[in-house]
## 1
Amino acid sequence: MRGVLAGDAALAPGTALALLADDTRTEILGAFRGAEPLGFAIFHDLPEVVFARRCGQLDDLFVLPAARVQGIARRLIGALTDLGHERRWSHLRWFVPPEDRAAIALYERVAEEPGWRSFICRLDPATSL
């Protein structure tokens, strides 16, 4: 994992951070002001067989409500695109619910909509949004 927000603190089994800490395929970029966490981006480095390269999949992007409208989300995306250039990703992709207007407004400024439709098979409806 990259930039773990919990540092050396013990993580209770079953917590979201413990789940991430145990997953070697998941990486996290954190945004901090000094030692204070402000937000994070959870992402994966994936094979992209169509282009015979790798790509980035942004899974979650979160900024604390008190830290929003300060450019933190934009900088996290910028850090991921920089990382993608270093790793020679073909692209960075992510999904956003259509009702999240604030996020969509930012994403339209920093990225383009590919025109693909997204589908989901809800394997456990009780735990899937």
## 2
Amino acid sequence: MERRSWILEVWKIKVNKLAEEVRLSALAAAAVPRAVLFPGRELKKLHVMPLSGKGAGEEAVLRCAGRWFTLLDRLGLRLSCLPRSLVLARMLRREGHDAHLVFGVRSDNGRREGHCWVSVQGRPVAGEASGYEELHYDERR
């Protein structure tokens, strides 16, 4: 009897993990076209989006978003840093993580170059942030 309950518990874990993967994939599938077609609107919505408490871990969200980005890359639809960051930040916020977009600039041989990435609690979670000077928005202006 104990063996049977152990096997049942393992299957419950597998089913719950699969359900989480499907839910995160659906969230990414909905977020990608919005980020590509309406980045300004998504940026505004992200600023006021409340944190949900669904609770998928940060690694699970990054893994799922990464799969979508890889699929799009293979299809020849490589997204720039802004849509990628919007998708990732939206997914992380939906899962209860305090994710924010960060914009930065750097000078490369006299050329100014911009980039954006996602940070959670002040640390970058995706995207290379080294060498970029963060831009800060002053709300008092």
